[in-house]
# Entry
Amino acid sequence: MKIKKGFVLRDMCGEHIVTAEGLEHVNFNKLISLNSTAAFLWKKVAETEFTAESMADLLVEEYGIDSALALKDAGNLARSWIEAGIAEE
# Structure
């Protein structure tokens, strides 16, 4: 999967917010806020093809968490990005 073109992560007032670069993408009814871990992953995969497994590997490497938990969390995050329309398979 990959992040859809036109979406970028910005820091706004201490929050990690995904925004669209062009007005054709703007939907002010839905703002996407990421916690610091999700923002870490976004920054690591923003310009690449990625999988839930590759995101889980990043979590294990960065935070030292159990690989099964990392895979569960990464899979949930990837699905939420796809459902929000900011990533595609």
